[in-house]
């Protein structure tokens, strides 16, 4: 039973003294989620109520199946924006068709997550390197931030894939600004920042939401063109199956895959950091299954894709959540709000929701990380910058793809042209080191000791051959080449073939090869290729010293 | 001048005694190219004459700009088939629109190759591993072979993306077989194989082409339903620009990229193997520029994509080609044939062309390679098999993509869960080795010596942390962990951060970290991260011995 529904485990041994923390966290997150859910739904091009629907059943499902005790799932800014910018290619924003496609996307994302979880494919998120993610997130935050300009200015902006389109359009329409809307928007941005800075115990979004509703209602600002949320259909969402056909699914699949990956990466990162604080383990496959089920169930009840969010989970943790019961409490409160309190939000100005999104994503822009990467490793820094710029210019989907391809190219280029060092003997320390870094290292005219700092595979053998041929060509007295294999962690069949050819060719030139420090896993592969029989005397040495002793160049 | 047109170099110092070889190779390749060009064009869904156009100007352009002396460019089976199976999605086979799209594809491929050459991106072909290529080629050969069934049987087969569709359709239509066509087809297959086996000096394709023409003409087989090549418009192709719009280009780009990659991989592999035989160098960027220009120029003169071919280049080399003049001679002969001799091929049966393709691709199926890979390295063998099966089931484009993603997954999985060994001291040899492989290795209760066989990056740090925490948890007396960094060829900023955290945590448990044998490139990165200041005493050691001596566990 506890294998089928992991929640059984923590429910069985639930400690009543955790209830206080769970209850207070559940309530605070619910209060936070009302404006956030509506704001993110708007960002995704959906009616605000869909955002509220998304924090009911999916939260409960995750609480039952997840492995994190404090992760607060729900709509997140990044995923919402990706939905907003991609689904618009399939249907008109706000239409019934649009909502249907988003729900279908939710179903697909759920299925992808579930399958990845069942097949233990969580490691696949490593496709995207940290630098790509960091550059992408900062750019996406800028795009999201600027996309809210229309709500703050109170004008219609068609927007586009890139930030620059948005800015140009906003400037050209600056004359149409609705002044009351702008004042509300700017005021709530100031309030959100200030309350965040003084670490107010009252949730800032709640303050601006209540303030916004009161101001619009009391001053009757709707009449002067301030856009409000309006009617939110009350009640619990009814069961419905997203409509689909094969063409739809084919077209949505790349989007669904991208969102499923990005969403899961954010979620697992948050879950792990919270788990580390409370010293327990996160099971990434179980997380995938839980998120998958949450989205599948959600898609049948008008919920759009959810995943674990940074800010929300941090609030959940700090408010004392000890078990997933906190999320269940949140979900119950959301259902109560949906059943009885939606009319309260009628006068909520959209500018307030826009400002909540803006301030939320502002924290995602990470300039420090870029600086840090450039200090530690330039190539990682450039990957971040390239991904950042390409995301700004090409939009989120193409941007992250471009960043990924660029990072892969850097990686392939590096592994195709690996670092190779000629070693000399440091007599005092008794070790072999790069002669370019240790000028005192002793070398031998008839022996070249070469260390290769990369696993060998088909793609870098050409480079290695060239380098070794150069060495053989340059040195007249050369009799032997010793390859230090201590840095070679892996080898493939093609490179073994190339090595054999190289050895035969060099033998014709009277240069012999020796191999030192071959590791177990590489030894196993060489055994399969018959090297124990054919080159036993060349690969038997455990260290470079042994070979030099055998050559009588070094004393035992 | 010789930088702009590399041919100037070899033309300047052309040795007249090379002329005999170049002339004979040029003639033999031309004879071979007439049927091959027509057959491959048919495979690509094009009128046979396009295949002849493709071996005129593009050959001359390649001869002027390429770096290989013996590479014979022209249409190849693999690329032709990829064109045939993909362009059919954009226009009806054989229509003017179809031809236009193929020429546009040729232009795109040329531009991609040229750009890759100008930016020195030849290393990008390493995206595809050897095992993927091998599995893909074998599967594609099967698909190509079976796709010729319609010509051999003389029936109309719509075909599909997968081999199984083809076979099922062929069986269902077996009753419609045209017996004379079948006899011609089978006879030419037998002749092609036999002449190949006895290493006949007369080119086998020429024999079956002449035989086929004579038989059809003398027995008037056209009247009994044997399909023939028919009218080939004579004369040199006129200049024309492929028509295009942005939507076309967008849709064709993935196809063009795939073909450009695959085509270049085949070409560079052949060029390199011939260059190795004659001991000269191939410049991969120059090759890309030459192929790019050849295809760009070709696309303006009704030529479809060309690249260096295996079989043809081997024939060129064996027939004595010494310089690219051989290819220029071939091209001139082809132009003469186009001007005066196309009516000769009127009665050529299509079944003969089909049999030439079938026999040509049969040689590409490589079962030995699969066996070899399984013997040497199982995971590479599985990559080959997965790519082979996915190509058969999903078709060439999706098949190679699937194979690529699978090979990437294997790679990522392996680097996310690297091999980690605990080391012990072999007193006799004075080296440290895996205690599981060397049971006699001496260990110390208060020190764990751990060797990590992978470069460290964000994706494998979790695994490493888990492993190290396990070790710290298991051993009560543990005071120090020595990490052997000799196998760590690279490190990224995220993993440095994780290591720092780990060291702080373990310090609380009174376990200290030491690092041995850090390589230069890794040292540089650690320096950037401030480790020289913060952990100078932990990373100063060149070898594990030094640390143990300092700990007084080993004598100096």
TrEMBL record, chains A, B:
The question of whether Secreted is a record keyword is answered with: no
Return any one Pfam family short name.
STAS
**Keyword annotations for this protein?**
Membrane, Transmembrane, Transmembrane helix
GO terms for cellular component = membrane
| Domain of life the protein comes from | Bacteria
User: Does the record carry Transmembrane as a key word?
Assistant: yes
**Where does this polypeptide localize?**
Membrane
User: How does the record say this protein sits in the membrane?
Assistant: Multi-pass membrane protein
The biological process GO terms on file are:
transmembrane transport
Give start and end of each STAS domain.
Answer: 437-551
How is this protein named in the record? SulP family sulfate permease
Species source reads: Orenia marismortui
